[in-house]
Amino acid sequence: MVKLDEEAYTYMNLRLNSEFGTLRAVLMHRPGKEIDRLTPYNKEFLLFEDVPYLDALQREHDAFSNLIKDASGAKVYQLRELLIRVLYDEKMLLGLIRDSLKRSGLTHLAEDIVERYSTAECAGILTGGLKVHELKRKIPNLDAGEIMDFAFAIAPCPNLYFQRDPMALTPGGIVFSSMKMEGRQREADLLRTIFENHPEFKDNVNKIYPVNGHDNPPSIEGGDVIVLSHEAVAIGNSERTDEKAIYHAAKALLAEGSVQRVYEVHLPKKRQYMHLDTVFTVLDENLVLTYPDAMNSVFQTSLYTLKEIKDDKVHIRREVLNESLVKVLEREIPHLEVLATADGNPDYSMREQWFDGANVFAIGPRRVISYNRNVHTNRALREMGVEVLEIPSSELSRGLGGPRCMTMPLSRARV
């Protein structure tokens, strides 16, 4: 009976104490119109890597979400459904539309949009964007100034199906991301709006980051946050996450008391090491999957611990460790086993890491979902006793993110 009570408490408390506990609930976003907005000429402006075929992308994503439900029994929340629910608050809707129009300088049209579009249409606009000529269908006499008809009044968010980036759950609560690239900040704003206002989540939000009062917080992204153990979290100092953000997140986590150690992992500022979860993922209490070249490129790790809390002020200490990342992992994970992508074969490892071979999604201890194209990594995982469930990946992989990148676990069984 005690165990059942504990399970009920942990089901939706929006805290995670592992990367591999049996999955109970996860947030995903089914790709939509925002993908069809991509062209070879605007994809870089929209911070995307390629121009996927939407119908095939949706089929692959559906296969992924259905596999999660069938294999784990977890509840899969879809971003669009949650977003529509919170947008029934017209004040909230108006604020999000107005903020989304700032980049085009058309904020004066926010009220017209909210008045003429349904709530569901507005949800689609916030994710899939809105062009001036589309707006003119609703407002025939629209004066858009010098902005051309085919320009975006609101830009789309094609990276939104990578739900790992806009936030992160830790043992102490939620890190709401401050995205490095301005064009992606709206993704983080949408998720924060949902979780702080949706009736199913709002009472369980314990915000770790950003710090109250910080209007322009340093950047941090969810893919850089990995739970190592019951007592430790690692955060990547990467091209997308700043040292100052790690300091503030570490301070809040240590003060909250759920962890005793926060590691800052210094990654090379290179595209292939964009986030810490491209370097390694934790698959069980004693097993990690790594990309060897990236692991060997980590030469500095720092450790944050709590010094004291005095007069309501939190003081932490930072120690630079002269240890490799593997040594840090061995310290936190007893009897650690390290498996390299493609079992260490340099050619296959490099090829499969291009499609995020190390970025698998754990749905339970030694149970992972992986791209079917990463055949050598999947074979090596199976030889280690890992159950590997494969998903089609011809289109999903074009965004250069793996199964972990596409999922935001909201609840796992405690380990």
Q: How many domain regions?
A: 2
The level 1 CATH classification of the largest domain is: Alpha Beta
CATH topology of the largest domain: L-arginine/glycine Amidinotransferase, Chain A
User: Over all CA atoms, what is the radius of gyration?
Assistant: 21 Å
| Sequence of strands across the biggest β-sheet | 8-9-10-13-14
CATH architecture of the largest domain: 5-stranded Propeller
Strand portion, in percent? 15-25%
Q: Classify the helix fraction into a percent range.
A: 25-40%
β-strand number: 19
Q: Average pLDDT across residues?
A: 91
SS field, number of helical segments: 14
Could you characterize the architecture of this molecule?
Helix 4 (79-87) crosses helix 7 (119-128) and helix 4 packs across helix 9. The chain has a five-stranded mixed sheet, sandwiched between helices. The chain has 14 helices and 19 strands. The chain has helices at 2-11, 33-36, 54-72, 79-87, 90-101, 110-116, 119-128, 132-138, 185-197, 243-256, 292-295, 325-332, 346-354, 375-383; strands at residues 23-28, 75-78, 130-131, 152-154, 167-170, 173-176, 207-209, 225-229, 232-237, 261-266, 280-284, 287-290, 301-310, 313-321, 337-340, 361-364, 367-371, 387-391, 408-412. It has two domains: 2-76 and 160-410, 5-stranded Propeller (L-arginine/glycine Amidinotransferase, Chain A), CATH 3.75.10.10; 82-154. It has 415 residues and is α/β, with parallel strands linked by helices.
